[in-house]
Each structure stands twice: as structure tokens, then as C-alpha cells.
Amino acid sequence: MSEIHFREMASKSWLNFLTFLCGSAIGFVLCSQLFSILLGEQGDTQPDILHNDPHARHADDNGQNHLEGQMNFNADSSQHKDENTDIAENLYQKVKILCWVMTGPQNLEKKAKHVKATWAQRCNKVLFMSSEEDKDFPAVGLKTREGRDQLYWKTIKAFQYVHDHYLEDADWFMKADDDTYVILENLRWLLSKYNPEEPIYFGRRFKPYVKQGYMSGGAGYVLSKEALKRFVDAFKTDKCTHSSSIEDLALGRCMEIINVEAGDSRDTIGKETFHPFVPEHHLIRGYLPRTFWYWNYNYYPPVEGPGCCSDLAVSFHYVDPTTMYELEYLVYHLRPYGYLYRYQPALPENIRKEVSRDYKKEDPKVK
Amino acid sequence: MLSESSSFLKGMMLGSIFCALITMLGHIRIGHGDRRHQHKHHHLQAPNKEDILKISQDERMELSKSFRVYCIILVKPKDVSLWAAVRETWTKHCDKAEFFSSENVKVFESINMETDDMWLMMRKAYKYAFDKYRDQYNWFFLARPTMFAIMENLKYFLLKKDPSQPFYLGHTIKSGDLEYVSVEGGIVLSIESMKRLNSLLGIPEKCPEQGGMIWKISEDKQLAVCLKYAGVFAENAEDSEGKDVFNTKSVGLFIKEAMSNHPNLVVEGCCSDMAVTFNGLTPNQMHVMMYGVYRLRAFGHIFHDALVFLPPNGSDND
């Protein structure tokens, strides 16, 4: 009888023990869950803050690359609350620039798209030139083939198209590649001293082969209205050849023949404004090896390091899509608050008279 | 039945207690924690435009000079090329910048911390800086050699912030109960925080040289624990739109991410206009940033700023 009683008691304490274990396990799990909820390590995610992008609105809006009236530089968010863009807006009206971008069907989405999303909107008018028409992008069809050897022919046809359709819509006509980044305000400042009725063109000047020099294709070049007229006329009257495999050199030769002056695009302290490479290649001493062709091509003494490039640079070349947006951020967004830039060039006389009040207000006399 | 349920309950209690013990043990010694801070994430914003307009024209220069920032950069011999770039670029805009290295390096002047351990280096550097410069600087900024920092934007951010208050700013991360400023974004301490920190550095119970019990804890977390004992709490620095101004990544990386995450709003969704730091840069990229920040700009865009900063003497890249 005591044996049964003993077994009963043993099984009971065994059962007790089991329930005890169960309880402790459940208690442990519940508690750890509770703790992990209360003290969970939050991952480090920088919030994706998107803001109204009025700049993009301009581009996507009517899909015509038409910028009617004034650029609303102040449309951006409160980051630009303290910004006064009167001078930039004034120059926009005074120095009208039509930009055409050399591209092709395979590059519309890969490259030209990013040009369109960034600097192209600041042209008074922008056209994307391709061998075939694309109504959606939109791109003009020049009815040529693609390829490096077609570049000059495309250039001639592009300028012809611009001349035939938009001659009176602008004062200056700029050619750029789909991997060129252009700062339009700085181009307008450069050109504001000149008369578009003069036969002159600007770019990064190279010295070989052409006596007055010629302008690098990739860094972009800009023709005055008179220069454009003469250029288009030169092909009608056979003054210039149609065929060449080197676009910029051929154009430079033609310019010399038709007496269009190769202008000096350097800033008021002699620093280059049009650049055939990205900033890094020019700013870092020794980046471009001494044996590189570039050192012998530059019309003016070439400089590497900080002296390479003007504060008011106009263009950079071989700019990939990421670098396009980076430059856009560095030029138009990030700035050092309150910093008095070393290089403070004067406004051209005519513009200064108009905006003199605002300009003087902004120039703190600090000793 | 009763005995079973009671043993079940006893089991549960024991299990919970055991679990709680383990959790507590695994965490760093947080101390008694401040239950007052219900708000999960501390945010600190840049001043408003309205505040700025109230500052008169005459006061601008004086005001600008009132911010004296001492820059601490912790380096190791392997960082020599970054060190060179940092020296030649943004640190020229600190009121004073000093390099604290793990050992003596012939090429550059530095203060030898004689240790390889990052937390020890940090402690010694803060102590050195406080002992020597407590009367000359009111803000102390600690950076990594892979960073690019814009001092002018830091001073703008600090406008209206009283350095005699305990400020501890940067890009914050929450780890359990602890909110700390990540060293990868740069750490800003006011003179008051420096004072409090230095008073605790000698107390091993509060500010030990070897914090974690089971595994090593990063130096920025250790700093946060130490500061928390002194009543100094981390705050995340943001601009007037809520964008971080201290960044742990480079501009290029932000752009790449933006291009895949929101390709229609790449630049606007990227980073603050008033960013103070970026990290993860190569020496070449620092030179490009120097040009891009202090020189390259679009003509005709003029700003009404409350502060005025002159370019430093004897410098040709800004």
C-alpha cells in the first residue's frame, strides 16, 4: 500500500517538476519577447525625405523643353529662402542661350535623361539632337547615322536645324555632349560682355592645327548669332568641307575660314572656364600624366591643382550620371553659410546699372 | 491540481526573473536611466529665418567671431594620405585643428596618444583638449580622417545655442535604451559638456576604460554612456526641413542611393543645403569637395546671411 502511495507521490512531484519547467520556459520566452519589444535596437536608417521639386516640374510638365517666360529660381523649398536670384534672372532675359545636346537613341535614357533633369532646364531653349526622332523624350531626328565619324555631319545638321527654326529665339547657340555639365549662369556672365552680332565663338581653346586655335568638342562651345549665320552659310557656298572624322577640329578650321574669332573664355584672373574633364582630373596634381596629349593641346598655359579652374566654371566633360547630380548639388544647393568668396568679379556695366541697388546691398564692406 | 498550477506559476516567475537578469547583464551599465525622457529621438534644428533677421547688420561680424571651434581628428599611421588631404582642406577653416595619433608619425605634426584603442584615444584627446583649451574654445568637434566638414555650416547650426548648456550633437543612433552620436558623422560637444565629461573621466565606475563586460563596445557608445551619467544627452542635428546635417556617407553615395530609390527627385531628396559633414571620402574627393563647396558656384545667386566668415590666410584652394 505504501508502495502505491509512494509511486503516486513520485509521479505527482514529477508532474509538478514538469509543469515547473514548462512554466519557467514560457516565462522566459514571454519575458524576452517583452524586452525585445521595449528595447529593440532600431536600425540606423536615414529617413528618405523627399521634397517638392519645382525644378523637375518645369522639365516634365509640357514635355516640350519649352521654358516660357521667366525661370522661377525661387520655387525651391525653404533651403533657398535667403536667396536672391535677381541678377541671375536678369541675365537670363538679357543673354538668351539656346543649348543643343549631341546624343543618340541608345543614350537618351542612359545619359541625356540626366542632362534633362539637371542643367538643361536653365537654357532659354534646349534641344536634344539624335540621328532619329523621338517624340516622347523629345529628341530631334537629324536623319544621319550614329558613330564617331558622323559627329561632324551631325553637328552641321544640328546647327542647320537650329538656324532654320530658332535663329531669332536666342542670342547665343551652345553645343554640348550628353556627358557635359554646363553652368548656364556662368556662361551668361562670360557672354554678357560681348555682342551676339559679332562673329565670335567660345569654348576650351586648343592650339594645334588651326592658327587661331579651335574649341574642344566635349567641353562644349558656344557660337554668337552672327557666327551661326556664317557657319550655316559656309556650307551652302562650299567655303567649308562637309566631311571630317574630327568634329571639333573641322568646325575650328571652318570658323577660321569664315572669319569667326576664337574667343578667350578665361575669367578675369586668367582661370579656364570650359573644362575637357571632370573637376577631379584638373584639381589633383599629377592626375593627368605628363605624357598625356592634353598638356600640348591647351592654347593657354595649362594649370593643374586649384589654379586649374575658375570659381565661375562653365563646363566639365566626361561627366557620368552620378557626377551630374553631384555637381548639381554642389553648385546649386550645398554652400558654406556666410562665406565671403575670394573671387568676387564685377557685373558687366549694363547689367550693373539695372540691378545696382540689390547688388550693393549684398556686398558687405568688411575690413 | 493546485500544486501543479502553483509550480507552473513558480516556474514562470523564475523564468522571467532569469530572463530579465540575462538582458540586464548583456546591456552596458546604463545606470538608473532617465525615465523623464519619453521622447524617443532627440531632434535639434537650425535657426529660423525670422530669428536671423532680428540680428542687426553691425552684430554679424562680432557674432561670427563668437563661435570658436576646436577640431580633434583621431588618426593612425595607416591614415597618412587621408591625413594629408584633411590638413590641406577643410581643417583650415577650424579656429584650431589638432591631430591626435596612435603613435608618432614623422611626416606630420600630431599629439601622440600612445595607444591603439579608439576609446582610449578619444578619452585622452578630450582630456588634453579640455585641459589646454578650456578658456579659448567654446565648441569641440571630433572627426574621422575620412570626413569632410564645413565649419561655416557648423557655426550657422550653433547660432542661438548657448555653449554653457550641455550640448552633444551629431547624427544619432538608438541602441536599445541608449541614444548616442555616431562618430561616423562627427561629434560636437559644447564647453559645458566637455566640463562634465572631464569630471567623470577619472571615475572608472561611471566612465570605465573598458566598458563592455562580454564584448568590446564602440567608442562612440562608450562616450554616450559616460555623458549620460553627467546628464548630457545626444541630440540629432537637423536643418529646418528635418534633413540630417551630419552625414555618415559621402555625397556620391547619397546620390547613387537616390538614383535607385527616387530617380525623379535625386538632388532635392539627397542632402541638406546646410550639411556640416560627409564621411567616407578619399583624399582626391576631399580636394574636389573643397573646390565644390568653397569656390564653384553659379553667378548671380546672392544670399542674405546672418554671419560673415572670411577665407583663411595663406590658402589657395578656397
TrEMBL record, chain A:
Enzyme class, UniProt record, top EC level: transferase
Transmembrane segments: 14-39
Highest taxon above the source species: Eukaryota
Catalysis performed (reactions): an N-acetyl-alpha-D-galactosaminyl derivative + UDP-alpha-D-galactose = a beta-D-galactosyl-(1->3)-N-acetyl-alpha-D-galactosaminyl derivative + UDP + H(+); a 3-O-[N-acetyl-alpha-D-galactosaminyl]-L-threonyl-[protein] + UDP-alpha-D-galactose = a 3-O-[beta-D-galactosyl-(1->3)-N-acetyl-alpha-D-galactosaminyl]-L-threonyl-[protein] + UDP + H(+); a 3-O-[N-acetyl-alpha-D-galactosaminyl]-L-seryl-[protein] + UDP-alpha-D-galactose = a 3-O-[beta-D-galactosyl-(1->3)-N-acetyl-alpha-D-galactosaminyl]-L-seryl-[protein] + UDP + H(+)
Signal peptide: none
Residue ranges constituting the Fringe-like glycosyltransferase domain according to the UniProt record: 97-261
Cofactor list: Mn(2+)
Pathway where this protein functions: Protein modification; protein glycosylation
Gene3D superfamilies: 3.90.550.50
Localization of this protein: Membrane
Entry keywords, A to Z: Disulfide bond, Glycosyltransferase, Manganese, Membrane, Metal-binding, Nucleotide-binding, Signal-anchor, Transferase, Transmembrane, Transmembrane helix
Record EC number: 2.4.1.122
Biased composition (Polar residues): 64-77
Region (Disordered): 48-80
GO MF entry, a single one: glycoprotein-N-acetylgalactosamine 3-beta-galactosyltransferase activity
An example Gene Ontology CC term for this record: membrane
One BP annotation, GO: intestinal epithelial cell development
Bias type Basic and acidic residues, positions: 50-63
Membrane topology: Single-pass type II membrane protein
Quaternary assembly: Homodimer; disulfide-linked. Interacts with the C1GALT1C1 chaperone; required for galactosyltransferase activity.
Family the UniProt entry places it in: Belongs to the glycosyltransferase 31 family. Beta3-Gal-T subfamily.
Function: Glycosyltransferase that generates the core 1 O-glycan Gal-beta1-3GalNAc-alpha1-Ser/Thr (T antigen), which is a precursor for many extended O-glycans in glycoproteins. Plays a central role in many processes, such as angiogenesis, thrombopoiesis and kidney homeostasis development.
Protein's UniProt name: Glycoprotein-N-acetylgalactosamine 3-beta-galactosyltransferase 1
Species per Swiss-Prot/TrEMBL record: Mustela putorius furo (European domestic ferret)
TrEMBL record, chain B:
Subcellular location: Membrane
Keyword Membrane tagged: yes
Assigned keywords, A-Z: Membrane, Signal-anchor, Transmembrane, Transmembrane helix
Membrane protein topology class: Single-pass type II membrane protein
Database matches in Gene3D superfamilies: 3.90.550.50
GO molecular function terms attached to this record: glycoprotein-N-acetylgalactosamine 3-beta-galactosyltransferase activity
CC per GO annotation: membrane
InterPro entries: C1GALT1/C1GALT1_chp1
Swiss-Prot/TrEMBL GO biological process terms: platelet activation; platelet morphogenesis; protein O-linked glycosylation
Record family assignment: Belongs to the glycosyltransferase 31 family. Beta3-Gal-T subfamily.
Family matches, as PANTHER family: BETA1,3-GALACTOSYLTRANSFERASE, C1GALT1-SPECIFIC CHAPERONE 1
Name recorded for this polypeptide: C1GALT1-specific chaperone 1
Name of the coding gene: C1GALT1C1
